[in-house]
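Minutes, project check-in
Item: structure for the 55-residue chain
Input as provided by the requester:
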Amino acid sequence: MKRLIAREILALTAEHTVTVIPLDTGEILATDTIDPTRTYCRNTQKEPGRWPSSP
């Protein structure tokens, strides 16, 4: 199991996209597209998984 560590982050938001950047490294940790018609959002920094049917 991966251990969770508290980190300070910068969350940049635009219309339907959220980008998460840790302040200590400056790397993009996650980029999520929020689809208001669905009940989940997908991290576009990772390959699509099995949940739910990926585009």
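Outcome recorded: The chain has no helices and four strands.
No further action items on this chain.
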